[in-house]
Amino acid sequence: MQRAEANISYRDYFPFWNKLTDNEKDLTERNTRILKYLKGESIHSGGHDCLGMMVVKSGSLRAYILSDEGRDITLYRLFKGDICILSASCVLKYITFDVFVDAEEDSEVILLSSSIFSQLMESNINVECFAYKQATQSFSNVMWALQQILFMSFDKRLALFLSEEIKKTGGDTVSLTHEQVARYMGSAREVVSRMLKYFVSEGIVELSRGDIKIINKKKLLELV
Amino acid sequence: MQRAEANISYRDYFPFWNKLTDNEKDLTERNTRILKYLKGESIHSGGHDCLGMMVVKSGSLRAYILSDEGRDITLYRLFKGDICILSASCVLKYITFDVFVDAEEDSEVILLSSSIFSQLMESNINVECFAYKQATQSFSNVMWALQQILFMSFDKRLALFLSEEIKKTGGDTVSLTHEQVARYMGSAREVVSRMLKYFVSEGIVELSRGDIKIINKKKLLELV
């Protein structure tokens, strides 16, 4: 993690900016900074730290939960302009669970420290309301993931995952190992490999080292 | 579902009561009623209906999600005094998923209709804030359930521990404090207490000072 100089357009990044008093705006400006993270770096680790409210400036973040045995399940991803509120969970008393957040690629985040964020929530009900609305939005994201995990058959889920990956990159190739795909999908490597082999036999994908190339997008989307 | 005559102590049931104006209090009183449900009756079915904000007056409710194939997963239960906000999800724009709510036993709920609740949220930021705090609390409940379901360890482990303890003593009571159980299991007291509370709600154990009494051994062993 590396700090970058702050050159921040607050009103673009903080939706509650116009509801702040001049004093609160000043306080916010003095306590906001930009942090840089490298791909794979941990940003937030459950109850152990509590950086504050974040906005993604560039790159992408992944929020996940972790079992005692180290199994992880992706809850949602955050991209440019998205707000990460669970990294300030220590100041949100209605949040009683732990999540983890990693940088999924080299990323910059705008951070408003948790102590100042807490102070603003205390002094300005608009900020408090904003925080819990954001948390509720995360709730909706998590419910979506939960339904994918619990209810969808695995071929559908994998097809959906691959189609969303290529939508993001605009190409036809997903550059992830089976292990990584399994981790993102909350599954096991063997399950992913087996299903990909089936997709190969169906003429949907081609596999090479570390790459999954979609060769029949139409058939892939029919599965979704 | 059957209506009962309204005789409601608003300030006890609606946490935002003291933040309402006289007009808003009047509006709330005129649009609150008590509904009675029989055990097993459906109260809320996803996006199809949207009764409003509910408070459990007696009995208990179960919130769950349902797959296309009819598989259901319990998200949480609500008991006397608990607030059900997801039954007003149509007026909470940050909630984009569907849940179902049933009466788990004969129950009475106090209902503030969704149209009036929406009107109050619009006119009074304290009510809006209250709604999203409640939604965030549901989020925490769901995350707890999710971790049980996905990582499936602690409920099994605790059930195993208790069943082995009663096997040792030959009775049906484990005379250990939650602190002691936690120590034996390499866990934390709060984790043990929370899971035991869940076991109580499932009718598996009864708790008294320093004692854990197994009241449904069959159900306990099914967990193992």
Q: How would you portray this structure in words?
A:
2 copies of one chain form a homodimer. With 224 residues, chain A is an alpha+beta fold. Chain A has 2 domains: 2-150, Jelly Rolls (Sandwich); 152-223, Arc Repressor Mutant, subunit A (Orthogonal Bundle), CATH 1.10.10.10. Helices cover 42% and strands 25% of the residues of chain A. Chain A contains 8 helices and 12 strands. Chain A has helices at 10-13, 22-30, 114-123, 125-151, 154-169, 178-185, 189-201, 217-223, and strands at residues 2-4, 32-37, 42-45, 52-58, 61-66, 72-78, 83-84, 100-103, 107-113, 173-174, 205-208, 211-214. A 5-stranded antiparallel sheet of chain A has the order 1-2-9-4-7. In chain A, strand 11 and strand 12 form a beta hairpin. Chain A is elongated, with a radius of gyration of 20 Å. The interface between A and B is medium-sized, with 32 and 32 residues.
